[in-house]
UniProtKB/TrEMBL annotation:
The keyword Electron transport does not apply. Residues 1-28 form the signal peptide. It comes from the Bacteria. It comes from Parasphingorhabdus cellanae. It holds the Pfam family DUF1501. This is DUF1501 domain-containing protein. InterPro entries: Alkaline_phosphatase_core_sf (IPR017850), DUF1501 (IPR010869). Keywords: Signal. The keyword RNA-binding does not apply.
Amino acid sequence: MQYHRRSVIAAGLSGLAMSVAYPGMAWASAATDKRFVFILQRGAADGLATIAPTGDPDYLPARGDLAQEALTGNKLDSFFTLHPAMVESAKLYREKQARFLHALASGYRERSHFDAQNVMESGAMQPYGRDDGWMNRLLSLLPAESAKAMAIAPAVPLILRGPVPASSYEKSRAKGPDGDLMQRVAMLYAEDPALSSLWQDALAADAMANMQQGQMRGGAAIGSMAAGLMSGLAGARVLMLETNGWDTHSRQKGRLGNQLKQADALIAALRDGLGENWNNTLVLVATEFGRTVAFNGTGGTDHGTGSAAMLFGGALKNGGTVQADWPGLAPANLLDNRDLRPTMRFEAMVTGALSDHYGIEPGQMKKTLFPDFV
């Protein structure tokens, strides 16, 4: 694959951009057993370290000795190298169950985490431009049995808010009540259909979350819990989860390596926990913006613009590839003299990936998920 600047990517959400991204697709009605997981890396994960452009002659000079570990990672092609902590993701890439995208961003060009996350979750053109999220709007396109949505979070995040019902689940760290108390509460709620239904749903979600979590910890435990919440006929078909700790202003090398190791374990546990359903699942991992090309004085990176995204799935189209209209890291090519210049719109990438996954015509997908861009 060649990586060079093309003006077509600047068109953002154009159908031409989607046809470049997903050639030869046939559109059909939405399937009923598809699953979709969106993982938001809150804090601006460093895409230049995750999927390092080691073939760019300006990469190593820009990042200095702290970037040398990129050379020890798994080569994805002649240009990009996956971070050495992402061992399982590298295996999925070789099996054509992983696809990486680089130099992409939403339309947001400032440097506030909160505003950027708001844009990414709402799918609006500007911060706080909408009070619903594009994942909720996705639910309106799916059959009822495929539209059961859940977030692993203390409350339903913006991305899942909207007219279609969605729920959230977060496992309590406190010691749970004993079985006798749970039974008494169930009996208390039995006379109220609404409360009884909510209580039974909560018990079912807790049981599914515990089913596969076992004694695993960290990212593996989260991935296993997510798989449990998506298992069985009553399980969620659309799931959002968020990971934190990506804001690496200092001592990035060790911190980012641990973060990516946990993310890698999460993906592997999700794959293992879903079993055969992995072949019906699309996983999208993205962050609100990238980080500066050069390191700062404390061994970290500051808020940037262009970043990377990752797609996983057992039946992923165009797996085993890196898609990038690479702008180059020479000083003259940087945005604001400091950032990776984005050449692909986040919204276009989401539209193409979900159109492919669900077999829904791209124009309809774009109009529904990102109506502000039509």
